[in-house]
Amino acid sequence: MNDQELLELVDRAVDQFNGNLNDLGSAIGMVMIGRRYGWRVVLLIHSPTTIRKYVKILGLKNLRDVLPEVGELAERSNAWKLVDGTANFWKVVRGQISGVRSAIVQKK
C-alpha cells in the first residue's frame, strides 16, 4: 500500500469512528509504525487481542493487506532480532514463548 492509500485508509477510519479517541489514535499509530517496521514487528509489539481491536477500528481484514512483512527498520526491534531467522516467530506471537515480546527499538 502506498502512502496516499494509507492516508486514505486513516481518513476513512477517522470519519467512521465512534468511540474512545485514544483507541483510534493507537490504531493509527500502529499502522503508521508498521509502515516502516512491518507487520511482523507489529505482531511482536501488541497482543493478538489488541491487534484485532485496532484492525477493526481501521476497517481492515488483515494487517498483511496494508503493511510490508518486514519493513526497512525491522532490524532495530529487539524482539525481531531475537526471532528473525528462527522458527519461533509464531510461537512468540501466540504466547507459547514468553520474554521475547517487546516494543523496544535501538538505533543502528
3D architecture notes:
It is a single chain. The protein is mainly alpha-helical and 108 residues long. It has helices at 3-16, 21-37, 39-45, 48-57, 78-83, 89-93. It is built from six helices and no strands.
How would you summarize the topology of this molecule?
Layout: H1 3-16, H2 21-37, H3 39-45, H4 48-57, H5 78-83, H6 89-93
How far apart, in Å, are the first and last alpha carbons?
26 Å
| Poorly predicted runs of 5 or more residues | none
Overall structural class, as computed from helix and strand content, comes to: mainly alpha
Shape summary: globular
The residue fraction in helices comes out at 40-55%
Overall mean pLDDT: 95
How do the helices and strands follow one another from N- to C-terminus? HHHHHH
Strand content: under 5%
> What Rg is obtained from the alpha carbons, in whole angstroms?
14 Å
Number of helices: 6
Specify the biggest β-sheet: none
- The strand count comes to 0
Tags for this model:
108 residues; mainly alpha; 6 helices; globular
Describe the structure concisely for a colleague.
By secondary structure, the chain is mainly α.
